[in-house]
Amino acid sequence: MIVLDKWYISYDGAGYVACGIVYGHISPLCTDGTEIHTSLIEEAEYVADEEAFVLHTLNSEYHVKISDMHCECYDPMRSMWLFEKFAEYHGIEEAMEQVAAHYRKLSSELTDMKKALYDRLSDNSLYIEFTDQHDFYFECGLYRGTGGASEFFGRITDFDYDFTTLVASLNYAVEFIPYKHGNIQFISHSEHSMPGEFLGVICNSGVNSLNIRFSWGGMVIVAPGTELEVYEGMGAPLPLPSREQDN
User: Fold this and answer.
1) pTM of the predicted model, to two decimals?
2) Closest CA to 202 of 148, 139, 135
3) Which of 11, 100, 144, 192 meets the CB 3.0–4.6 Å disulfide criterion with 121?
C-alpha cells in the first residue's frame, strides 16, 4: 500500500496532484522517505470511519490520512481552500469539516513555531533551515527586524541567473547558489538589515551534511540535525567541494 506523509493537494494548471513524503511505492524513483508529487488525480474516495482518502492516479493508488495533512509553503489556509475546491470537484465535500479542523490546528501550531523562531533571534538577524530533501535545499526562514517586525519565508521568493548559474533569493535579503551534492554558496546579504557581527542561525534538518560557503570566503560544514550561529567572517578559507548545478 502506498501512503503519503505530510501531504497536501496542489494544482499544476492541468489538474490536481498530491505532494508529500512517500512510503511503499514500487517505483525505484520513489523510495521510502522521498518527497514526490503524484501524477494527476483521476478519482478520490473519502473513507469516513478512518478519516482518510484513497487517491487514484493513472497507475497508482495512494492512501492518505487527514491527520497526516500538511500544507504548501507553510500556508495552511491556502492549502485548506485549495482542498475545498478539490473536494467539490471529486464529490467528497463531507470530509471538509474534519479537514478544516485539522488545518485550523496546523495553523495554530505554525504560528507557535514562527514565534519560537522569532524569540530565538536577536534584532536584525535571519534564521534559515536547509535540507537535502528539497530542491534548492530550502525549507523555511524567518527574519527578525526591529520593533517587533518580522518576515517568514515559506519558499524561495525569487530566482535569477548569473550567466548560466541559478541564484536563489529570499526577497533579496540573502542570495545563495544551490550546487549539487550538498554545497551552498551565499553570495550576498543585506548589510542594512543585518548590520552586526551576528547574522543569524542556519539549521540543517536533512539527512546529510551541507557545505556552506559565505560571501566573505569562509566555509563551514553543518551536520544533519544541527544548527550553527553565523557571525561575519567565520569559516575556513576553503572552496566548495563542488560547484556543479543540474542542467
Assistant:
1) 0.88
2) 139
3) 144
Q: How far apart are CA 194 and CA 123, in angstroms?
A: 9
| Short-list 122, 244, 232, 87, CA closest to 177 | 244
The answer to whether residues 159 and 147 touch, using CB atoms and an 8 Å cutoff, is no
Q: Going from the first residue of the chain to its last (247 residues), give the mean pLDDT of each consecutive group of 10, the final group possibly shorter.
A: 96 95 88 91 97 96 98 96 98 98 97 97 97 93 96 96 93 97 97 95 97 98 98 97 87
Measured between alpha carbons, how far is residue 122 from residues 50, 85, 118, 138, 150 in Å?
45, 41, 8, 22, 11
Rounded-to-integer distance, Cα 163 and Cα 140, Å: 27
Q: How many CB atoms lie within 10 A of CB 151?
A: 15
Q: How far apart are alpha carbons 102 and 97 in whole angstroms?
A: 9
pLDDT at 64: 98
